[in-house]
Amino acid sequence: MDISSLNWLAVIASAVMTFVVGGIWYGSLFGQTWMDEMGFTEEELKEANMVKIYGIAFVLELIMAINLAMFIGEASVSEGALYGFLTGFGWVALAMGVNALFSRSSFKLWFINSFYFVITFTLMGVILTAWR
To answer: Transmembrane segments in this chain: where (predicted)?
Structure first.
């Protein structure tokens, strides 16, 4: 697939969606557990340069959306969901699992961090194929 044929609105929407899901995932669903597993306090999180973190994260998520769009091509919505899921689970979550094993992270932390990507890549696949 040629990058000029991408639906840029869908790519941007996919990147924005990751922030919406992340706000829920790392907020009300798993926020406190994630903080406990990472060893962070509220005060430490407030000291972070959030403009830098969110800005760079958005650029990285945008690149991920472009990458997935290039792989998906002209797939149907159900295929887009499947390819997104397989990307999130088969590559990202399992690669993060290997890192978690060697860094001796907890199963909880691996689940929280990796399944965020399983969900967001699945939704990216849907967005990228539904908006043609």
So the answer is: 6-30, 51-70, 82-102, 109-131
